[in-house]
Structures are given as C-alpha cells and as structure tokens.
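User: For my dataset I need records formatted as: sequence, then structure tokens, nothing else. Please produce one.
Assistant:
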Amino acid sequence: MNVIVLGGGAGGAAAIAELTMAGHDVCLWSRSTTTLAPFLAQGGVAYEGVLGSGLARPRLMTTDLATGLERAEVAVVILPTFAHAAVARDLASAGWAVDKPIILNPGHTGGALEFQHCFQSSCGYVPPIAEFSTLTYVARKYRPGQVTVTGRAKQVRAAALPGGRQALDIAIELFPGAVAARDVLAADLANANLVLHPPGAILAAAWVEARSGDFTYYGDAMTPGVARVMRRLDDERRAVAAAFGHELPNLIEEMKLIGTVEPSVTDVNDFAAAIAGGEANKRIKAPASLNHRYYREDFGYGLLPFLELAAIAGIDVPVAAALLELAQPLCDVDFRRIGRTAERMGIAGLSKVALIDKVTLQ
C-alpha cells in the first residue's frame, strides 16, 4: 500500500520503520527541514528497540506536501494533536481526494471530530477518517536521526466517523493490535494520556522547572498523592464515557491492554505501583520545561475537549476542571483560546443525543 506518514517525530519515525518493514511503499513528510535533514543525510530512519534495529528507507522523504501526496493511497497523521487542524487544512488545500482515507495515530481526544470539521469548513467535503485512542508506540528520539522504540502497543482502540469504514479497515490492517471500537467517543475517552499526564504535570511542576526534567516521570513523580488525583480524574473519565453508553475499564486495566502496565499486575487500583513498574515507561524522563507536550497537548487537546464532552454529557468533572484552571497560569497559556474547543470540534450546541447520532456508524 502507498502510505504517506505525516510527521517526523518519534511516533512518525517508528511508523516509518514498522510500515517499511511490512513491505509498504512509504513516504515521510515533515514540515520541518531541520527534522528531515538527519534522515536525508543517512538515507533513511535509524531505529532501535522492540522493533529491532536498522535503517528504514522510505521511498521518499520530503517537506513538499504536494509531492508527497502524488502516489499516496492513505495518509497516516502522527503529529502532536495541536498540529491536527493545520494539517487538515493543508491536506484539504492540496486536494486530498474525498475517497482516500486518513488515519490519526492517535486522535487524542476529539481529533477525528476536529479533522472532520476542518475539512468540511475548508473544502465542503470529508474523506474517510479513523483515529486511535493512543499512539501505537512508546518512542523517543534521543538523537535526531534515530528513534528508540521501548514499547509497541499490544492493543489500541480504533474508531471511525460515519462514512469512514474504509479508513477503519485500513487502520486495522496497517497497525497490528488496533481493535475496532463502537464510535469515536469510545476512542476519545479511552485516551490514556488524558489521565496519565495532567496530575503529575501540575503536581511535579516545581521539579520540572527546578531540575529541567532530570527525574523519571512515571517513577520518581508517581507518588501516592499524584496517584490519588489520577484515580479521581479517571473516575470522571469513566463517568463521562458511561453517559455516552460506553463502559470503559479503568486506567490501569487500559494500560495493561496497551502493554504499558505489566500483565502480572493484579491490583488495578494501585495506580502508583502499577504505573511505576511498567517497563516501557519506567525510564522515561520528565518534561524539561512547561512548554513540553505533556502541558501544551494534554491540557489543551486532552483535558479541554474532555471538559467539553463532559458538559454535553451533563457530568460534573471538578478534578479535570481544577487541573485545567491551574495549568493556565502555570504555563501562562489560555488553553481555551488555543485548544480543542467544542466549536473547533464542530459539536458546539449539540445535545448528548445529537452528538451520539453524529458519531454513530450506520
């Protein structure tokens, strides 16, 4: 299959490695010449870790979107979710065909809805869109030309918007472990990072600033107090999901399915021990600053759209609301101004019933 991967970060680099090894005709596009330069210099994407080690050689690596799209049959968007709207508009402007699928790996919370709204607003039509609940890799770029993949998701939830069945089928074909969910709300509300990152981001912020991230985020910062806040936030997430008709497992059970909590864990209510003991995450360093994506992405594109969904569902979520309110002065960012609002997802003013109808596959 001819696949264009949009994004040259750790997730995009890992996907290049996996899709190339699987025999697909792959193109890597990045907006950044700086990001692409090391890959071009060595003739491909170096990788190591659970996918093996080697140099994946995509057919084309480019910063020119039109050139990258020429042979593409499917677009896989693996970018921070704050880039989704801009990429959706770029694809629409470039004439991405109405019948060609787009896969968001991941959609985070509300990604497919925002992508749909951007396409509809830009060009009046919507191609097939599917999204994953979380990124299919635990990966970091410790040097510019190489990705280190410490985890490959055993299972992620995949869902499509109405009209996107083709995108869902291809997403499951391209990425082993993707399992179809009933609708995108199930995938949106199974976003593990929505619960996993914000409590520690707020409660360990002084360490982030004082030590520039020189501690482990899922180990040193996973204290009992952080875990208690995380459990309350997780209860709110599951309550909102239930209001939309989805009975989702708790965070630890979800992470066991993904593979970032060890299968031997039996006490799924001991968040601190379960998360700190996960091999895929345990050595990952904390954010080096308050500009890190754990702040910019997981508040503006995780908690904020979650609050919007909660409001439509009629569920009170005080912990989520408090975390977002604290994040705004902490980061000196108005997340409601720049983030994923109901308006940007195209769901402003919808009732719960209307939103369920909007996302239900026929």
